[in-house]
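in:
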């Protein structure tokens, strides 16, 4: 056998080994453990409770994520539970765990592997109906009692600005606190805040300040195989190009 043929055979075997190794990263029975919370209209329990599995969960992000996994041909289980703080820490600690809808921030970027964006939101300060609070920026808002959601990106952002929000384990608690006068402003995500307020029978909240826009992603534990991330991102990009992401979003809004 000539030297050229030996080299060609070695290259072919090398490529086959690389392909096998890449494939070995994702066994046929591989499954992602997906976690989410009540964060309507993006992800929520069909029965409005704080625990649900698989088909008992719907919402914009939930429907998009299901279609992504179907197209990527990757197995998964889906659980909705509470509180967010626990889900966040589980995903940081457990290989092949994923969490959505997770706001992408510069501070969080090195902590996870990311697929998205799935959706976009705005961060707002809301006041109770009839309240005349007026602020021009977060600095001027810091004089007021601000309620937020523990370990949520909005709360983390306020804390990074040197503010000390009163963090609740359920964002719905802030609706009640606002109406009772226990906090002056509610730092939350739009349209999530208004949706939660409506569920609590509250309408007419005043938008005092819009201070950031954000993108929602599917965040994975850092040890998740790159192949999972790549296949899911490709599926999401295809869905967006086909108009599927916009179609799902409009079904809820």
């Amino acid at each position: 056998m000539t030297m050229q043929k030996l080299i060609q055979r070695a290259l072919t075997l090398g490529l086959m080994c690389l392909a096998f190794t890449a494939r070995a990263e994702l066994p046929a029975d591989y499954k992602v453990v997906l976690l989410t919370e009540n964060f309507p209209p993006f992800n929520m329990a069909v029965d409005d409770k704080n625990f649900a599995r698989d088909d008992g969960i719907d919402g914009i992000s939930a429907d998009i994520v299901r279609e992504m996994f179907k197209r990527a041909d990757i197995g998964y289980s889906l659980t909705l539970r509470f509180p967010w703080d626990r889900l966040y820490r589980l995903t940081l600690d457990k290989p092949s765990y994923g969490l959505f809808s997770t706001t992408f921030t510069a501070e969080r970027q090195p902590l996870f592997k990311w697929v998205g964006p799935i959706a976009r939101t705005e961060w707002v300060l809301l006041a109770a109906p009839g309240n005349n609070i007026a602020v021009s920026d977060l600095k001027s808002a810091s004089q007021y009692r601000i309620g937020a959601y523990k370990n949520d990106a909005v709360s983390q952002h306020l804390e990074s600005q040197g503010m000390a929000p009163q963090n609740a384990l359920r964002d719905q608690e802030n609706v009640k606190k606002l109406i009772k006068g226990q906090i002056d402003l509610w730092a939350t995500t739009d349209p999530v805040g208004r949706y939660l307020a409506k569920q609590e029978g509250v309408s007419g909240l005043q938008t005092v300040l819009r201070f950031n826009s954000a993108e929602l992603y599917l965040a994975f534990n850092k040890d998740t195989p790159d192949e999972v991330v790549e296949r899911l991102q490709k599926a999401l990009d295809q869905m967006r190009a086909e108009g599927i992401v916009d179609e799902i979003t409009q079904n809820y809004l």
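note: The longest strand covers residues 113-127.
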